[in-house]
Design a protein that fits this description.
single chain; about 350 residues; alpha+beta; 5-stranded antiparallel sheet; 4-stranded antiparallel sheet; 11 strands; globular
């Protein structure tokens, strides 16, 4: 066994078990994501989750032509540095030899950062064959130059994963589904999307995040069965359990529906494509206006403003999600249906404290 093959601790009789040591903050992120990325009520298994992240990272960089650094965030920082040098030299592209030299210099400069890992909690997980083979193939690579044991490399990798934004972590974990859906879009094909056991027929138009870059969505025209008409819809990527490509070419239908989809996306936002828009009037007091200026997530764009009264054209669901937390600092003036909804919910909540 070479020194970079996953090692087996003397207390274990399973060579596929790998020990990693992560900081408390990293474990908190991983535990959160195991639940957030599960399509059921149960958390994803630790081994399955960690293997998927690492596999998807390797897949995401396998088509890259430039020499890669072994950790995602360091690679992004290095890419920015290479781009700055390329522009400074006035070249369209740097040779592999130059990039390799820059990479090695970069590694030496950041060797200390690679080597320092927070001594937190140690856990073991089972490596699947794909990850086991990938680690074994790294003998003699730059990974081995920096990390003398796979456990150190994996610990550094998962620490970096935990430093990524939730949006980037979601993209990494769901890389396979996102890649499959993007292929549909590129080929202008239709497909089936399954969510909580329900089947939806979808002509996809784009994969995008919401304005705050919180979640990834598949957006397009959709219907639940053959008898219905297609209408604008969006699906949270993390809620999709599986996808299936249909043989039908959707170029003609896509062209016919493009204007309707673009209009809905512009007026409703990607999270609320399934809901109808309404003209909504909200009165805000001074604290409410301060909250409106500070809280950006799901905030609708005002179309008109007259003193303390703001007018929006958005879905009632968006207005509910955003303004309900304002409490008495926001009053729904219209429509009556939304005003009544707020009143009923506040009264129901107050009943728990009476």
């Amino acid at each position: 066994m070479n020194k970079f093959e996953p090692y087996m601790e003397s207390v274990s009789d399973d060579p596929n078990k790998q020990h990693i040591n992560l900081s408390e903050q990293a474990w908190e992120v991983i535990e959160f994501d195991r639940t957030a990325f599960s399509v059921t009520e149960e958390a994803l298994s630790l081994s399955g989750f960690l293997n998927t992240i690492f596999e998807n990272y390797l897949i995401s960089i396998e088509d890259e032509t430039e020499i890669r650094l072994p950790l995602p965030l360091f690679q992004k920082e290095f890419d920015r540095e290479v781009e700055w040098i390329r522009q400074a030299l006035g070249r369209k592209r740097l040779s592999e030899e130059i990039i390799d030299g820059l990479r090695r210099e970069y590694v030496v400069r950041n060797q200390k950062c690679y080597g320092i890992l927070s001594r937190g909690e140690g856990r073991k997980f089972r490596l699947n064959n794909a990850v086991l083979n990938a680690l074994s193939s790294m003998q003699g690579s730059m990974v081995e130059e920096i990390f003398d044991k796979p456990g150190k490399y994996l610990s550094a990798f998962y620490e970096e994963y935990a430093r990524m934004s939730f949006y980037d972590r979601e993209e990494l974990y769901f890389h396979a589904i996102i890649s499959g859906l993007q292929d549909w879009i590129n080929r202008q094909r239709s497909g089936e999307v399954y969510i909580a056991g329900k089947r939806f027929l979808v002509i996809p138009f784009c994969i995008s995040g919401d304005r705050g870059q919180n979640y990834h969505y598949l957006a397009g025209m959709s219907k639940a069965n053959e008898e219905q008409n297609y209408k604008p819809a969006s699906f949270r990527i993390s809620r999709i359990s599986s996808i299936g490509l249909l043989t039908a070419d959707a170029k003609r239908e896509r062209k016919m529906m493009e204007k309707e989809f673009d209009s809905a996306l512009k007026s409703k936002g990607i999270q609320f494509l399934l809901n109808d828009t309404a003209r909504i009037r909200i009165r805000l007091d001074d604290i409410g206006k301060k909250m409106f200026n500070q809280q950006l997530h799901l905030r609708p764009v005002p179309e008109k403003r007259n003193g303390n009264v703001f007018e929006f054209v958005c879905t009632q669901m968006q207005a509910e999600y955003y303004f309900f937390k304002f409490g008495h600092h926001a009053e729904v003036l219209s429509p009556v249906s939304l005003r009544n909804l707020f009143s009923e919910k506040y009264q129901e909540a107050a009943g728990h404290y009476s």
